[in-house]
Design goal:
GMP Synthetase, Chain A, domain 3, 2 domains
Length: 146
């Protein structure tokens, strides 16, 4: 039995004035603090702020953390700290154009109550995160249980 009703709506919005170097504001209706977003320098931008590429990588990375926390709780896996570092690579795609070609995750789990269970939960998370499963970007995981 599901713990929640689907579909679940999430509303976001963005507004910007013209100019490649002009940052803009993006908001999620459930959060009071807007984000400043900008085009990265690599694509001709110069304004400070999160780039769409940053937000894409952060969405994947934080979905992993959230999913791991849920799976760890349901598996009675105790841990002290999960650390995730990710490197997103924008590259030319085989079908043409630029895209989010691959993301490399370095994941360290500290203070796990059971190392074997921790590895199983990490692997399950890599296959069970809904945002990771929603993108065609190649995903590479390196797990370390300390």
């Amino acid at each position: 039995m599901d713990r929640f009703q689907t579909p679940i709506p999430f509303h976001v919005s963005a507004k910007s004035q013209s100019g490649i170097a002009t940052p803009w504001i993006a908001e999620a209706s459930a959060h009071p603090t807007p984000l400043t977003v900008s085009i990265p320098r690599e694509f001709g931008g110069s304004a400070p702020g999160f780039s769409p590429e940053d937000l894409f990588a952060l969405a994947l990375e934080n979905c992993f953390v959230a999913t791991f926390k849920v799976f760890a709780e349901r598996s009675n896996l105790g841990f002290e700290l999960i650390s995730v570092n990710a490197n997103l690579e924008v590259d030319r795609l085989p079908e043409g154009g630029l895209g989010m070609a691959r993301i490399l995750f370095g994941i360290t789990l500290e203070g796990a109550s059971n190392a074997d269970l921790a590895h199983r939960v990490l692997e399950k998370t890599s296959r069970g995160c809904m945002i990771l499963n929603s993108v065609k970007t190649e995903k590479v995981f390196q797990f370390k249980v300390a």
